[in-house]
Structure formats: structure tokens, C-alpha cells
């Protein structure tokens, strides 16, 4: 089958590489998504194993529609009775970029009516619409006059791992955190350090990656489990293979630091929820005043002066650079930041630079390799 996997802007290369590792073929990067060919087993695995995925979608049909009647007919023509049962709930989400269809809600409503009417004509009854927690989630995508109808295999967004029970201000999206670790080139052996760990997302995602721990909880539920084509035995096989591939002994030293007691408490709580308390150490301290280390790997998400405020953001970033140069020799450091002027004050030319999107904040991640100029990130 063809699947389309959504991700965050800038993470398409990391997601494509993950799909290669799953064995998927015909991989095609898109904007904030990657399309590929996958078996049913690989589609199941994509939901529970991909670290940079937001949603896994299965296209059902792609057709030209020039008006609302053609939209209605195209959706109604799909054999929905072979996809889900009358006693299951469904929801339709419309995404429209078109001069012909101006309102996504209206397109979604027409599609919902088409699906319900098909069931009514076949059975005399209409399935229940549940916009909050549907058994079956359907996406209607219209670009100009091209209609694509997709089944949402995931359900709730895959960035919701379930371990972050104690959030703090401006938390880093779990998918973005995993993507940063994957894009950084960390060898999963060098000690990992986040000196401004916030709620611990980077630490937890790094531990998951090093230990080959699936990003999703094994008891998480997915929409594909409600499809008539769901193969329970095949899903159990995917889960068993994922469990047997875990390598906890491979997790190196992973340490978090934060000057905020609230952040330290949040990280410790989330680490316990992720059952990683034996692999991640967290302590309270100021990065600028704590004794440094050499030969480690740093990834951090300091304040941007957008969501979190510092008295003098430029001086703050200058101190980051001074601290790295003074106390962290032979160290690779990646910093994600949305304040370009502040990032320049770090005083170390980035060896590599990648443009990412953190919420609505354009962010630059900077790789400082052994405190020397080594290229562009």
C-alpha cells in the first residue's frame, strides 16, 4: 500500500531514513511529509516505531472534483462498508487549499454526509459521528481541484508519547526532540548532556534512541486497530519484534541540568513515567557555574526570548559560548534557537546548520564541533 507519513518541517530527511530502515520502498520526500510504499506490517510498525512521525495516513482515492456535487459523489463511491462497521463512530477532517473549494469545514461536512448516506442506503441506518474520539478518522484533502481521501491510521498525534505528565513552559515537541537527536549524528555511545533540560524531552528521546526503545507505549491504541482489515496476529508480531530489539545495555550516560527546581522536578517525574530512572540522571544547577566536562555530546534548547524571557537574551547566549569554550573542550554542542541575533552571540561559527520549525518559531540548530569552525549545520 501507499502511505503518507506527516512530520515537522525540516525533519523530512530523518523521517525518510527511518522509513528506509523499516524496509519501505519508493520513498518520496514531500513538504512536512514523506510518501512511500509499505506492506501492512510496515504500516503497523511505522505507527509504533517512527520517532519523527506525526501521523501515518493511507490514501484511498485521488480524483479530480470541480464542484461540491462531484466531491460528494467521489466520497460516496468509496466502499466504506468494507472499511468500518455501522456501529463504529467516525469523523472527517477537511484540509483545503483551493480556489474552487473555499471552506474546509464545508468540504468535511459534505464528505461526512456522503459517507453517512452510503451506509443509510445500504442498511437503513447512519453511523455515529464522533469528532473527538472517533473509531475511524478520515481526512479529506483538496488542493485546487484534486481530491485525496485518506484514512488516518494513527488516531491521536504520534508526538504524544505519554511520558510527559509534568510539562513546563515552552516544552519541546517530542517529535522535534527526536529529530534533533537523529539529525545531530550522535553516535549513541558518547555521554549525552542537556544543560537546560526543561521537562527532559531531549534526554528521554535520546535514551529511547540509544536503547532502541519504541517511542510509543506498547498499550497505545491506534485507529488502524478499528479497521475491518486489522490483523491482530500481525500487530502482535510487530510488537514482539519491537520488544525483542530493545537494548537497554546500550544506553550511555545521559545527564540533564537545569537551574529551575520546577524543571528538575518535571524532568524527574517524566523520566520515571518513561521508566528510564536507571538511565537518566538529573540535577539542579546553573550551566554557567557548574564544573564542565570534556568529550561529551550536548544538545539543548535554551530560552528564545519569545516564549521564555531572559533579562538580556544576547548576553545570555554570549555566556553559552563562553562557557562552552572555557569548560567543555573536545565537545560537540547543538543548540536550537529561534532568535538569530542571539545565536550569533554564541561566538562560535556553526559547523552545520539546519532550519527547523518549533511550533510557529523558525529555529536554527547550531553544531559546535570541538569549539572550532567545521562547516555548516
Summarize the structure.
With 377 residues, this protein is an alpha/beta fold. It has helices spanning 12-22, 40-49, 68-76, 104-123, 174-184, 201-210, 232-244, 261-273, 313-327, 340-344, and strands at 2-6, 25-30, 33-37, 55-64, 90-97, 136-143, 146-152, 192-194, 254-258, 280-284, 297-300, 332-337, 352-358, 361-369.
Report on this model:
The protein is of the alpha/beta class. The protein folds into two domains: 2-152, VC0802-like (2-Layer Sandwich); 174-213 and 222-369, Vaccinia Virus protein VP39 (Rossmann fold, 3-Layer(aba) Sandwich). Helices cover 31% and strands 23% of the residues. The protein is built from ten helices and 14 strands. The chain has a seven-stranded mixed β-sheet with strand order 2-3-1-4-7-6-5. Strands 10-9-8-11-12-14-13 form a seven-stranded mixed β-sheet. Strand 2 and strand 3 form a beta hairpin. Helix 3 crosses helix 4 (104-123) and helix 5 crosses helix 6 (201-210). The relative contact order is 0.12. Residues 369-377 have low confidence and may be disordered.
Reconstruct the topology from this structure.
Elements: E1 2-6, H1 12-22, E2 25-30, E3 33-37, H2 40-49, E4 55-64, H3 68-76, E5 90-97, H4 104-123, E6 136-143, E7 146-152, H5 174-184, E8 192-194, H6 201-210, H7 232-244, E9 254-258, H8 261-273, E10 280-284, E11 297-300, H9 313-327, E12 332-337, H10 340-344, E13 352-358, E14 361-369
Parallel strand pairs: 5-6, 8-9, 8-11, 9-10, 11-12
Antiparallel strand pairs: 1-3, 1-4, 2-3, 4-7, 6-7, 12-14, 13-14
Amino acid at each position: 500500500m501507499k502511505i503518507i507519513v506527516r512530520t515537522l518541517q525540516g525533519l523530512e530527511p530523518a523521517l525518510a531514513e527511518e522509513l528506509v530502515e523499516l524496509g519501505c520502498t519508493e520513498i518520496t520526500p514531500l513538504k512536512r511529509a514523506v510518501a512511500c510504499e509499505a506492506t501492512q506490517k510496515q504500516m503497523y510498525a511505522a505507527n509504533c516505531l517512527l520517532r519523527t512521525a506525526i501521523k501515518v495516513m493511507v490514501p484511498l482515492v485521488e480524483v479530480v472534483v470541480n464542484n461540491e456535487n462531484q466531491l460528494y459523489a467521489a466520497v460516496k463511491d468509496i466502499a466504506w462498508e468494507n472499511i468500518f462497521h455501522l456501529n463504529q463512530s467516525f469523523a472527517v477532517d477537511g484540509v483545503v487549499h483551493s480556489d474552487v473549494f473555499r471552506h474546509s469545514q464545508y468540504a468535511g461536512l459534505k464528505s461526512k454526509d456522503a459517507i453517512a448516506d452510503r451506509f443509510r442506503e445500504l442498511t437503513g441506518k447512519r453511523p455515529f459521528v464522533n469528532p473527538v474520539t472517533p473509531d475511524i478518522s478520515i481526512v479529506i484533502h483538496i488542493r485546487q481541484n484534486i481530491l485525496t481521501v485518506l484514512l488516518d491510521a494513527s488516531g491521536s498525534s504520534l508526538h504524544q508519547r505519554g511520558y510527559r505528565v509534568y510539562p513546563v513552559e515552552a516544552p519541546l515537541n517530542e517529535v522535534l526532540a527526536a529529530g534533533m537527536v537523529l539529525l545531530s549524528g550522535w553516535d549513541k555511545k558518547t555521554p549525552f548532556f542537556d544543560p537546560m533540560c526543561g521537562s527532559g524531552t531531549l534526554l528521554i528521546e535520546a535514551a529511547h534512541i540509544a536503547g532502541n526503545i519504541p517511542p510509543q507505549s506498547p498499550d497505545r491504541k491506534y485507529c488502524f486497530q478499528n479497521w475491518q482489515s486489522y490483523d491482530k496476529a500481525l500487530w502482535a508480531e510487530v510488537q514482539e519484534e519491537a520488544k525483542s530489539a530493545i537494548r537497554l545495555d546500550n544506553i550511555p550516560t545521559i545527564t540533564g541540568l537545569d537551574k529551575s527546581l520546577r524543571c528538575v522536578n518535571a524532568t524527574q517525574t517524566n523520566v520515571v513515567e518513561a521508566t528510564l530512572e536507571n538511565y537518566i540522571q538529573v540535577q539542579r544547577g546553573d550551566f554557567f557555574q557548574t564544573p564542565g566536562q570534556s568529550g561529551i555530546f550536548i544538545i539543548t534548547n535554551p530560552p528564545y526570548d519569545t516564549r521564555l524571557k531572559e533579562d538580556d537574551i544576547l548576553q545570555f547566549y554570549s555566556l553559552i559560548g563562553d562557557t562552552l569554550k572555557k569548560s567543555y573542550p573536545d565537545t560537540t554542542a547543538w543548540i536550537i534557537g529561534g532568535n538569530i541575533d542571539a545565536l550569533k552571540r554564541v561566538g562560535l561559527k556553526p559547523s552545520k546548520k539546519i532550519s527547523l520549525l518549533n511550533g510557529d518559531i523558525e529555529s536554527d540548530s547550531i553544531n559546535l564541533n570541538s569549539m572550532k569552525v567545521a562547516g555548516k549545520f
